[in-house]
Amino acid sequence: MNCLEPILKLENVSKTYMMGEMPVPALKGINFEVYDKDFVAVLGPSGSGKTTLLNIMAILDRPTEGTVYVNGLNVSELSDEELAELRLKKFGFVFQTFQLVSWLTALKNVEVPLIVAEVTAEERERKARKLLSLVGLAERTNHRPLQLSGGEQQRVAIARALINNPDLILADEPTGNVDSRTGMEIISLLERLNSKRGVAIIIVTHNITIASKARRTVYLKDGAIVKEEVKA
User: Which is nearest to 48 in space by CA: 187, 211, 178?
Assistant: First the structure.
């Protein structure tokens, strides 16, 4: 049993949407914890509730029932401004569609979270260059997204996710828009970041091969966790 406080904890979390007057349950009684240096895959088919779960874990959405804690803080007690600050400081995000700003260079894309955090231009550039080098893109700093391959764009996105030294990276189908070989390279990069830098990672995916790279796999079906496996 882990005696440390979890970075993220979901306690009896349920989410129900209303379709007209009909309630549609998306999540049912989810209990889930993520600790420092964890590497977790949430695996499930389309319609299993993965996106809803990701949005709640990222404190982008609120549960209908249950409680979400980030470093012991009950997020339901926080204002929208406090939630935004918590996301900025604690989480990094990697999306299936990269979510890069098309008119910005790779360097400037990586800097974006630090602009929001009001970090000086000199410090932003120093950190961004260091992270682009870390993900193997030191020679691509001045390239814009359309001048980069899908795999390179995702590496820029990973560098951006790391820029605020987050406790946790949430990756939503991070290999979904690249070929299988590039996808495995992306997962290998995330594995290295987890083992070398110690950042906790949650990958949400429908891909069994990708999920198998995680040390812990949570299986989601019809909005409920049906199984959990931990590698020895």
Answer: 211
On whether the CB atoms of residues 213 and 187 are closer than 8 A, the answer is: yes
CA gyration radius, the chain: 18
State the CATH architecture for 8-230.
3-Layer(aba) Sandwich (3.40)
Cβ 169 vs Cβ 190: under 8 Å: yes
Pairing of β 224-230 and β 216-221: antiparallel
For 137-184, the pLDDT digits (tens) are: 999 999 999 999 999 999 999 999 999 989 999 999 888 888 888 888
Q: What whole-number distance in Å separates Cα of residue 174 and Cα of residue 135?
A: 15
Q: Are 105 and 144 in contact (CB under 8 A)?
A: yes
Burial of 38 (0-12, 13-18, 19+ CB in 10 A): buried
Q: Give the pair of three-digit tokens for residue 227.
A: 């199984």
The residue ranges of every structural domain in the chain are: 8-230
Return the half-sphere exposure (C-beta side, CA atoms, 13 A cut-off) of residue 15: 23
Three-state DSSP state, 192: helix
Other beta carbons within 10 angstroms of residue 37's beta carbon come to 16
* Segment 210-224 mean pLDDT: 93
Tokens representing residue 91 in the block:
């989480």
Q: Phi first, then psi: what are they for 65, rounded to 5°?
A: -140, 160
